């Protein structure tokens, strides 16, 4: 089979598109014929060696996948050959930038049926990140308010839709380029962060501040004043610390996305019900993944890109 692997940490040039033996599932595992994997910023960090996640080299990136069950390991009775699935794979193991991948059975759930199977690879980790940030780390519930900074990205749009479904009032920041998409996702108030001071534009404190953008640390700290006493600041930007305010009981939490099979099953059902929309801005063949990593290093990727295995 074909796969993309790296044998050492470094720039995009360490990635190799090559022939690899088709793997065999062990007990509790399945083999998936990959339809697509999704490119995530963490793939860049893994390849470069920036993330503290131990991997065995050579390593295949791509931890969000969609595909079809091709073979079952001993003891697997929750899935069948031919099942269409999606999954958020353990990041320390080989991922889905290949034609076949081995996955723990418990990491996979039925794929949504309302979107093409390949496109469904764009769902798992970003939708799980949005859910975890809002409800697990942020403890949001109906009747509360959330401010989402950087809502124009993929996680932001999932977060808006999930918050609105939960009965939360959503204030979101967006640029002129993304304002229409943020409005379509359901935000109650949209603030153009390119020409508006957030501290003056938000006229009522929020219960949770969710930051999804690489903002200046001093600006981030200043925004904590917008959170009510006892609220929370949650951020997906793991490369910078998340500020809180201990004196006012404002908690700080940084999101490190965790696999959750029950939650992923629910998210897939929300796609089929129309509550969530799977967004794919670009599709590339597997052989072009090294070039995509180079684009990411140069900051030229916008939206969600999936890597087609076939």
> How does the overall form come out from the CA principal axes?
globular
Number of β-strand runs: 15
Query: Alpha-carbon distance between the termini?
Result: 10 Å
Largest sheet: 7 strands, mixed
**Percent strand:** 25-35%
Helix and strand sequence: EEEHEEEEHEHEHEHEHEEHEHE
Rg, please?
A: 20 Å
Rounded mean pLDDT score: 95
Q: Count helical runs.
A: 8
Class from helix and strand fractions:
alpha/beta
Unreliably modeled segments: none
The helicity comes to 10-25%
How would you concisely characterize the structure shown here?
This protein is α/β, with parallel strands linked by helices.
Textual characterization of the structure:
The protein is α/β, with parallel strands linked by helices. 24% of the residues lie in helices and 27% in strands. It contains 8 helices and 15 strands. Helix 3 (154-165) links the parallel strand 8 and strand 9 (169-174). Helix 2 (124-137) crosses helix 3. The radius of gyration is 20 Å and the shape is globular. The termini are close together.
SSE order and pairing:
Elements: E1 2-6, E2 15-19, E3 29-38, H1 41-48, E4 64-72, E5 84-88, E6 100-104, E7 108-110, H2 124-137, E8 145-149, H3 154-165, E9 169-174, H4 179-185, E10 189-192, H5 198-201, E11 206-211, H6 217-223, E12 227-235, E13 251-254, H7 261-273, E14 282-285, H8 289-297, E15 305-308
Parallel strand pairs: 8-9, 8-11, 9-10, 11-12, 12-13, 14-15
Antiparallel strand pairs: 1-2, 3-4, 3-6, 3-15, 4-5, 5-7
Helix pairs in contact: 2-3
């Amino acid at each position: 089979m074909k796969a993309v692997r790296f044998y050492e940490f470094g720039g995009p040039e360490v990635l190799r598109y090559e022939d690899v033996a088709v793997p065999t599932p062990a007990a509790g595992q399945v083999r998936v014929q990959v339809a697509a994997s999704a490119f995530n910023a963490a793939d860049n960090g893994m390849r470069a060696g920036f993330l503290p996640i131990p991997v065995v080299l050579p390593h295949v990136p791509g931890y969000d996948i969609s595909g079809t069950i091709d073979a079952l390991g001993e003891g697997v009775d929750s899935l069948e050959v031919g099942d269409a699935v999606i999954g958020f794979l353990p990041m320390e193991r080989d991922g889905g930038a290949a034609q076949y991948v081995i996955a723990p059975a418990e990491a996979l759930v039925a794929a949504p049926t309302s979107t093409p199977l390949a496109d469904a690879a764009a769902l798992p980790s970003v939708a799980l990140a949005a859910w975890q940030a809002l409800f697990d780390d942020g403890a949001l519930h109906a009747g509360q308010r959330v401010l989402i900074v950087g809502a124009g990205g993929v996680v932001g749009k999932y977060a808006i839709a999930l918050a609105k479904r939960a009965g939360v009032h959503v204030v979101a920041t967006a640029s002129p380029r993304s304002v229409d998409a943020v409005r379509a996702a359901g935000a109650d108030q949209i603030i153009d962060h390119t020409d508006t001071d957030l501290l003056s534009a938000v006229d009522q404190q929020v219960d949770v501040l969710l930051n999804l953008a690489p903002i200046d640390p001093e600006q981030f700290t200043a925004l904590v004043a917008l959170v009510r006493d006892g609220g929370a600041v949650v951020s997906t930007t793991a490369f910078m610390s998340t500020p809180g305010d201990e004196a006012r009981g404002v908690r700080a939490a940084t999101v490190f996305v965790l696999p959750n099979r029950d939650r992923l099953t629910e998210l897939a059902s929300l796609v089929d019900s129309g509550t969530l929309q799977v967004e794919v801005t670009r599709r590339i063949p597997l052989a072009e993944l090294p070039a995509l990593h180079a684009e990411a290093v140069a900051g030229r990727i916008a939206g969600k890109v999936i890597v087609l295995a076939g």
